[in-house]
Design brief:
mainly alpha; MetI-like fold; 73% helix; globular
Length: 291
């Protein structure tokens, strides 16, 4: 019986295959590229419509530099606390496994996105001036957590609130790196007489360091760009740069600061771009052994 020739699979035209990427590039163009161009152009636009560097020079004003400094401190501290707490929780889940891991990771996926007005209200209802924990401590233990000042509406309070969603985010992004650590590596170290400290400092630690630092940078960028939670929690003043931008765009007292707000937004874009560039470099190094 004569063998039948197998028909070669038909290849789709290259143009047809690229049609599936059209929604993605349209989304990126509308919500990323165009707003970035508006910010960049507006930052160098004068009140008369011409090109001006006045808005960029205004970024050296003390109140703007202070806002950038507080934003960096808020992002760095909350990222560091979230990274350490999330890494420890991720390690506990790797050793636990099973149903507990699925439950905790599912909860982390929800809590990492729990922010904005809802999160601010949750903290106000819990440890606010009239929160049930605040009232209970005052009535039963005669303990006033605000004896030293209303810290919840200042930088320490923002750090606490931001840490709430930083820890679960760290768990999500750092867990794959811990999964990449093979048990055979620890067994080999033990067979060679290495201690637990030597294993973590000479094998697992150096391998996990790029992933840990990269995840910490991701947490920094997440906190640095957060706005809704701080806007709902801080009703007066603008302690961080996103709230300064809001004030410049919506202020009814000082008019004509829209372009100054765009200049501050450009500064934020530059900071986030640098951080995410470092994150990308660390992710490439992690992928060499994680893959």
């Amino acid at each position: 019986m004569a063998s039948q020739a197998v028909a070669a699979p038909r290849r789709r035209p290259r143009g047809t295959a690229l049609l599936g990427t059209v929604p993605f590039f349209a989304y990126v163009t509308i919500f990323l590229i165009i707003p970035t161009l508006v910010v960049v152009i507006g930052a160098f636009a004068g009140d008369d419509g011409g090109v001006s560097l006045a808005n960029v020079r205004a970024l050296t004003n003390d109140y703007i530099l202070d806002a950038f400094g507080r934003s960096i401190v808020l992002s760095a501290v909350s990222a560091l606390i979230g990274a350490i707490g999330g890494a420890l929780l991720a390690y506990a889940l790797v050793t636990a496994g099973g149903t507990i891991r699925r439950i905790v990771t599912s909860a982390a996926g929800v809590l990492a996105q729990f922010g904005g007005v809802t999160l601010a209200f949750a903290f106000l209802a819990t440890i606010g001036l009239s929160g049930f924990v605040t009232v209970w401590l005052k009535d039963h233990l005669s303990l006033d957590i605000y004896s030293g000042g209303v810290w919840l509406f200042e930088l320490p309070g923002l750090i606490l609130v931001y840490t709430y969603f930083q820890i679960p985010l760290m768990l999500i992004v750092f867990l794959p790196a811990l999964d990449g650590i093979r048990p055979q590596w620890r067994e080999a170290c033990e067979n060679l007489g290495a201690t637990t400290w030597q294993y973590w400092t000479r094998v697992a630690g150096p391998l996990l360091a790029p992933a840990f630092l990269g995840s910490t940078l991701l947490l920094f960028a997440n906190a640095f760009s957060a706005y809704a939670t701080a806007a709902a929690l801080v009703s007066q003043g603008s302690p961080i740069i996103p709230l300064q931008i809001r004030g410049a765009l919506t202020s009814e007292v000082v008019l004509g600061q829209q372009n100054l707000g765009k200049a501050m937004a450009l500064g934020m874009v530059i900071v986030v771009a640098v951080v995410m560039g470092l994150y990308s470099l660390l992710e490439r190094r992690t992928a060499k052994w994680l893959g």
